[in-house]
Amino acid sequence: MNESRPLFAPPRILMCSPEYFGIEYEINPWMSRSRQADRQLALLQWHGLADMLESLGVMIERLHPVAKLPDLVFTANAALIFKKKAVLSHFKHTERQREEPLFHDWLTQHGFEVLCLPEDHFFEGAGDALFVGDTLYAGYRIRSDVRSEQLIAAWLGCRVLAVELVDPYFYHLDTCFCPLSTDSAIFYPGAFDTYGIEVLQSSIPLLIPVREEEARAFACNAVVVGKHVITNTGAPQLQRDLRNAGFTPHETPLSEFVKAGGSAKCLTLRLDGENAAAWRESPAISQPVSP
Ligand SMILES: NC(=[NH2+])NCCC[C@H](N)C(=O)O
After folding, report:
1. Domains in the chain, ordered, with CATH?
2. pLDDT of residue 68
3. Which pathway does the database say it acts in (predicted)?
């Protein structure tokens, strides 16, 4: 990893294909067993996202899908990556706790030092903890515990700013907040309380608000690769705002994953450090070639 990586190493993202994806239980308000995902369409949409990322210069790493683990596709929830360390998730719901050993083994086998939280501390990885510059922004209450995030900040030696998530539809931080660079991010104000909004506004120089109907189409759940920002379809205003801020937005349909409460970002885990993370030492391409 970092030290040993060649110059211009490509961005690396972990994904897990949706062979066994479906709505088999209900652990967030988007999920209803009576509104099943179309698995063939999910496979097409997943490949659409993976192909788009590859065309932007990303190297996709794969986790093998496993039967009866329908949410394993949401690799953002595997862990929080910090240099060569991976803080393993410990899921709030038992349905997803069964994914933990698979994420643990994959990360260990791929050279990460895996850190595990105490049994009574919940934490859902990059779904709830995202760097902007040197600061770790951490969403808490619905899935992750604030005390997990305090412990992680102490382990990693970084500043953490914890923001409470107040709307059950925006139950992970990555559903309502996305760092774009070391000093910019997008966010949906309705998912935070007044104090959380103040924390974000006072600490991030460029904070772009996303309107409600676009946030409900998972516009904030974006994958950032250099200046490229990839989201689900249905966010024309955000696309304009991103262009004005110097980014290149891309849309790809992800309707089947929205039925499980996830979208582009949830389907990915950046392994070499997000572009917005100041700790990222890698000289990896920051402006990959356009498709
Ligand atoms: N990073 C994310 N927001 N992942 C979405 C996870 C969706 C999954 N059904 C859950 O409720 O846990």
Report:
1. 7-280 (3.75.10.10)
2. 98
3. Amino-acid degradation; L-arginine degradation via ADI pathway; carbamoyl phosphate from L-arginine: step 1/2
Q: What is the rounded distance in angstroms from the CA atom of residue 130 to the CA atom of residue 236?
A: 24
pLDDT, position 7: 62
Which neighbouring-strand residues pair with 291?
Answer: none
Which of the following is catalytic: 172, 176, 178, 228?
172
Confidence (pTM): 0.94
Series of mean pLDDT values for 10-residue runs along the chain (291 residues): 63 98 98 98 98 98 98 98 98 98 98 98 98 98 98 97 98 98 98 98 98 98 98 98 98 98 98 95 50 47
Residue 57: DSSP 8-state: T
C-beta of 177 in contact with ligand 1 (< 6 A): no
Closest ligand 1 atom number to CA of residue 265: 1
**Spatial CA neighbour of 278 closest among 172, 175, 156, 173:** 156
d(CA 51, CA 47): 6
Active site residue 172: yes
Distance 21 CA to ligand 1 centre (A): 12
Q: Please tell me the predicted confidence (pLDDT) of residue 282.
A: 52
DSSP H helices, the chain, are 39-55, 94-97, 100-109, 146-156, 194-203, 212-215, 236-244, 255-258
The predicted structure's pLDDT at residue 210: 98
Q: Is 266 a catalytic residue?
A: yes
Q: 267 alpha carbon to ligand 1 midpoint, in Å?
A: 9
pLDDT at 1: 46
Name the residue of 32, 73, 75, 172 to mutate for ligand 1: max ligand atoms within 8 A of Cβ.
Answer: 172
